[in-house]
């Protein structure tokens, strides 16, 4: 029987709802059927290796995002008729910050693994690739972009070609200077403002060669960033990182800008096979989504989104970094633009829960890669400082006396976010990232691996940090 459910278990006197393991939200959105499991077997320890390949049921340890609400295939479970509470609960005889956190979360992870495998595999079937960008494709067709005659003939899963991207960039540049104020292209279904004709003088090219040559996701972002007049901003982000001594990939500035603008969509976990890395060929659906987002900005000269990115880029700078901070942040920055993948810990292909992804990271998987799976010369005990794979575990491994407050954050600190900010308990921590300095941090979240500012919502939800470099005796 396949049902929509949130797995619920009783573990050593504690009651743990599965949505405690699926943050960026404080509780489940709906009131699904709830189920109980009496017991589960889990590994006794973790080693320095890729836990999602070698850890069996330990593999389901990520999933920190709001969209991940899988239909769960339940084996050996029975319904909980009480329904319990719509909010997540963490009631236990042991304090949430106590030593049994890791064991409790591993148990929960195993339950999720048993529940998710069947439907995730079905969702990932190559025979049923969804047209996930249908609303955006409708917008693109309405504006006569991408040589699209109709929604039904758009071919969303076809590879984006050089010719199509070149024309799209030129047309978006023209539209951005002519779209009337007040227009909402995101909901337009009839009428156009321009034709799809390309003017050579405004063409933005990304590669040379055959017009039918495929374009990568990185080339898509580069072309669009330049088309909307943010090429200089992309360079300024690169210059700010390099001035601090960091080596960054060539796509760095463009990916920072594209993700600040929200040009990427985070697919649900069961559709992680749709996620594309920067080096992967882009699809027409991805291009349509990006184009619709840009059209939603209105006239580029009046766009607050464009103005904000320009302002951020012009002031982007990092503090002076010591050698170890530089190593950590160089590795972190090398992942820029990688997609968010539930349970992901690698740049390369992984198959988790029956769904194959090309590579990517969830929030704690990103931290795990940088600090646990990456090897550094003369690192000493650095790899063993972070022991737990989940955000929850990572956040409570250090005593309160060693937690870093907001005002004392330093580059390369691991930071945590909780539903009650600094007053959060370990049970309320839902997200983790790496602090960069001067109010910036790098994370894997809805935008994939991206830079973000520790302001607004993030500042409000900031709980505490920890300093693995100090824990390993490498602070200076």
Q: Overall pLDDT, averaged?
A: 75
Please indicate the percent range of residues in DSSP E strands (runs of 2 or more): 5-15%
* Helical amount: 25-40%
Distance between the termini: 56 Å
Task: Pick out the low-confidence regions.
Answer: 1-127, 179-207
Rg for CA atoms: 23 Å
Write down the overall geometry: globular
Structural class: alpha+beta
- Give the number of DSSP strands: 15
Largest sheet: 6 strands, mixed
The string of secondary-structure elements, in order, is: EEEHEEEHHHHHHHHHEEEEHHHEEEEHEH
Question: Helical segment tally?
Answer: 15
Tell me which oligomeric state these chains represent: single chain
Describe this structure in words.
The chain is α+β, with helices and mostly antiparallel strands and 476 residues long. Helices cover 32% and strands 14% of the residues. It is built from 15 helices and 15 strands. It has helices at 51-54, 101-123, 134-142, 162-176, 217-227, 231-243, 252-260, 284-295, 304-314, 323-334, 363-373, 382-385, 391-396, 456-461, 468-471, and strands at 2-11, 14-17, 33-37, 71-73, 78-79, 90-91, 345-346, 350-352, 355-357, 360-361, 414-418, 429-437, 440-445, 448-453, 462-466. The strands form four sheets. Strands 1, 2, 3, 4, 5 and 6 form a six-stranded mixed sheet that branches. A five-stranded antiparallel sheet has the order 14-13-12-11-15. Helix 4 (162-176) runs parallel beside helix 8 (284-295), helix 5 packs across helix 7 and helix 6 crosses helix 7. The longest helix has 23 residues, at 101-123. The N and C termini lie far apart (56 Å). The model is unreliable at 1-127 and 179-207 (pLDDT under 50).
